[in-house]
Prior knowledge:
Chain A is mainly β. Helices cover about 0% and strands about 60% of the residues of chain A. In chain A, a hairpin with a 5-residue loop joins strand 4 and strand 5. The chains are: A mainly beta (about 110), B mainly beta (about 110). The interface of A and B includes residues 43, 44, 102, 103 and 104 of A.
Amino acid sequence: EDKVVQSPLSLVVHEGDTVTLNCSYEVTNFRSLLWYKQEKKAPTFLFMLTSSGIEKKSGRLSSILDKKELFSILNITATQTGDSAVYLCAVRRGTNFGNEKLTFGTGTRLTIIP
Amino acid sequence: DGGITQSPKYLFRKEGQNVTLSCEQNLNHDAMYWYRQDPGQGLRLIYYSQIVNDFQKGDIAEGYSVSREKKESFPLTVTSAQKNPTAFYLCASRPAGPVYNEQFFGPGTRLTVL
Lengths: 114, 114
């Protein structure tokens, strides 16, 4: 059975701290891994990772994928209260365009204390 | 403004009643998806559609039905056969094509069955 496991389930840190969120996966027909941020309602896209070892970066956020060990990490440096959210990891799987699907992890709830 | 709209935001129904959740997008996206999100769980795929007049079951399709008569619309019906329908429902869409593009999410509908 395909599964995506995120850790920790929740994390509380002080503003300015650096955090690392983890995502491990076991899926068939892996194609890529995606990170989303969910603040209130709609998840918003952060990164899509397809190749191992290539860091994706956007401001204070960065992410990397290890396809050999089947995991990804999301780093957030110099955290701000606006980073408080649930961070979702999803793995895109499928054998062709017609049957591609996303399998989501349970999410990590990050709370930043001012 | 381009985007995905879901209505209503909150929906209350009595047990045993069917209910239809609306999802509309004006992004000209070919593929549309329905997910369910429960507390402490990740998003789970209910149904998806890659083109008009075609759709496939996701991982938890039992008790749900969909239609895709128009490109911009993908309504989800929660039937009385769904054993535990109270949840947060998210609709998503993405463009088709040889290069994968991330899914964009609507604001969600919170369904409560009394």
